[in-house]
Amino acid sequence: MDTKRMFTLSQVARHKSKQDCWIIIHGRVIDVTKFLEEHPGGEEVLIESAGKDATKEFDDIGHSKAAKNFLFNYQIGCLQGCKIQDDDNLFMDSFKESIKAKEMEAFVIKEDPKPKYLTFVEYFVPLLAAALFLYYRYFTGALQL
Ligand code: HEM
What we know:
The protein is an alpha+beta fold and 145 residues long. The chain has helices at 9-13, 43-48, 55-61, 65-70, 92-107, 116-144, and strands at residues 6-7, 16-17, 20-25, 28-31, 75-79.
């Protein structure tokens, strides 16, 4: 499939029937004719947008990432004069952002909510109390004998 082919709006507008249905999404010209019956959202919505730019409608639905990547299978070209984001993935920006966020997370020094001395007191005090108790019992027991 030649995704570098350029189409004008009026060229795309000619393909607006169920037998020949093109739509534009994010500057990409998509031939959805073979996808009409498969579309989980129904063929009507695609036919309604046939020959037109359906970017807003597509985005408004909140399509999954899988759906977004699926779109590339049907791309036949680009809209003339449109700047296409990245080469192969129009959702690369959000992907890059999530990677960046993860990288930043690694640099954030997470503060321990508990001060170190509290951890020490937590374990040391009960141990000391137990040792003192045993010591006391040992001596009082020894004195009673
Ligand atoms: C080639 C373009 C398109 C592809 C590949 C595509 C793909 C999909 C997929 C895979 C789903 C299932 C849900 C998900 O994974 O997000 C879906 C649902 C849906 N799509 Fe599309 N879609 C396209 C274009 C459109 C357009 C242009 C519209 C609206 C005009 C639309 C409206 C819907 C609706 C209403 C649903 C149902 C959402 C739901 O049930 O929650 N789709 N689409």
